[in-house]
Specification:
Largest sheet: 3 strands, antiparallel
Number of helices: 4
Distance between the termini: 94 Å
Strand order of the largest sheet: 3-4-5
Number of strands: 5
């Protein structure tokens, strides 16, 4: 009798998107564009930055599972819309498509982080001299 155990997930420990780190207790991360949380798991939906500060929502279709180019659906939200409108659009799209209700909060958080990263950084203002001794030193030096 053959008692060999068949692995239900042969690519579970290795794949092209897997990033293993020994630091932090041996964490495993994922570079998969469909993965929202960047943790090595089976959850899949993706958000990417688009041109002009927009956001592209990428989901997988149920049809054409064996054709990677055909089972991908992209929706782009323009960068000129306000944040809440974009977030509501993401939630509404995923709800209408019956797509992973447990990932809606992560999708909005990722969209918010993408919008925040596209915003220009403020310059730090010069330090002001404070106190009587500091002002006296500034007057002497100039």
């Amino acid at each position: 009798m053959n008692t060999a155990v068949i692995d239900p997930d042969p690519t579970g420990s290795n794949n092209a998107y897997l990033v293993k780190r020994k630091s932090g207790g041996g964490c495993q991360f994922s570079k998969d564009p469909y993965n929202l949380t960047n943790q090595h798991s089976r959850k899949a939906v993706g958000l990417l930055p688009a041109a002009n500060g927009g956001i592209t929502l990428i989901t997988k279709k149920t049809k054409h599972q064996n054709r990677p180019a055909a089972n991908r659906h992209e929706v782009t939200f323009a960068g000129n819309k306000s944040g809440p409108k974009v977030y509501k659009g993401i939630v509404n799209y995923t709800a209408k498509q019956n797509y992973r209700a447990d990932l809606r909060r992560e999708a909005v958080a990722r969209a918010s982080a993408i919008r925040e990263s596209g915003r220009p950084k403020k310059e730090t203002p010069e330090k002001k001299v404070r106190g009587a001794k500091g002002k006296a030193v500034e007057v002497e030096s100039s």
